[in-house]
UniProtKB/TrEMBL annotation:
One Pfam assignment: Acetyltransf_1
Designated name of the protein: Acetyltransferase (GNAT) family
Keywords linked to the UniProt accession: Transferase
Species annotation: Chryseobacterium taklimakanense
SUPFAM superfamilies from the UniProt entry: Acyl-CoA N-acyltransferases (Nat)
Amino acid sequence: MKSEIKFRKATQDDADIIWKILQQAIERRRRDGSLQWQNGYPNPETVNSDIQKQIGYVLTENDRVVAYCAVLLNDEPAYENIEGKWLSDGDFNVVHRVAVSDEVAGKGYATEIFRRIEDFSRQNGIFSVKVDTNFDNAAMLHILKKLGYTYCGEVYLSGGVRKAFEKLI
């Protein structure tokens, strides 16, 4: 049977599975030796806030939630103070909190969620996607390189330095 993969806005009904997926991703970061997400963020309040603000999105396979992210339009104050230079200064979507469930980890779903975000952005007339990650998040750094994101510099977020990337689409 062919899988049906969809990208859609998260609803309150998704909150529990989203939090479970985020907990799995937090644990994967810890096992990989990354400091990212090891300080109580993200948490269930983050998930509920994302859903209420309508910025939470899920990737589903045959209607089962397998990945999560937040997509914000022009809304990351930390990005105004980049040590470096963005590729563009027009409208952009910011990607935060990308997480994939353990059952599909390593099977290309994080890459797929970025492809869906890029499609979603283009459909809404947004031609830039910006994202940041920890210097020690090897999995995300690999995905960003593979998908053609350009390293633009460093931003300060959540009390730490993050590598900042942009892709013009």
